[in-house]
Amino acid sequence: MQCGHAFVSDSLADEDLAKYYSSHGKYNEGYEDDLQKQRFPGSRSDAINYISLIQSALAESKGPIAFLEVGAGWAYASRMASIKGWIVDAIEYSPECISSLSHVLPSESIVYQGSFYSFCEHTCKTYDAILMSQVLEHALDPGEWLSKAHKMLRPGGCLVVAVPQYKGIYGLLGVRDPYITPPEHLNFFTRRSLCLLANRMGFEAVSVTGYSRVPFYNIKRRLKAYLPSIVVYRLLQFMQFFFDLIGVSGIQVQVLRKS
Prior knowledge:
Distance between the termini: 26 Å
Order of helices and strands: EHHHEHEHEHEHEHEHEHHE
Number of strands: 9
CATH architecture: 3-Layer(aba) Sandwich
Shape: globular
Strand content: 15-25%
Strand order of the largest sheet: 4-3-2-5-6-9-8
Radius of gyration: 18 Å
Number of domains: 1
Structural class: alpha/beta
Number of helices: 11
Helix content: 40-55%
């Protein structure tokens, strides 16, 4: 494709993905263990950025923001949004994350275990903002997900999408892209392909940014020593800052407004 988009063409069913994500053990460590890792930039700092982007996009809105986090994981964004007084719902496959969220979000919040597609089939709620952080690449039909998100958003509402940037930093370096991991990742978006798809589904781009990161704890796991890991981590941060500056970041973040 001229837009550079790539995808996995093998047939999969929603039931296959539900089974995979409910049992692959990504969240077995627990929320408190994951929280310890957030001393370095990670899911929590990403959530702070997403909440800030939503607030900027909805600066003129009045009243509490109705917010939906899709593929929430430990739902750092939902937790922060709830503290701010937003009306928060969250969707996630992992039973560990669902259990954790059920204890921290208000009783009126919907904490749904399943896919975005099945959630849409069971609700008629509308939202001011929807967050899909590193989840759209998992979708069997990302166009359908964007179409459903468009219908669920109120006029002027915003959708924040963060996905790995295909042909970004790894394409520039000519090395294997670690985000190409089917059946986990099924779609691989360039900035252009995501913009084109979102525009086709009725969105206009408010902003397009990105960031790159190798988690510190991944480096420490390999080197097995703190000080060498810190040195390597800081060197990589410097390199990644340059790649982000020229637009070939590992993760792209697009803020899309319902037009």
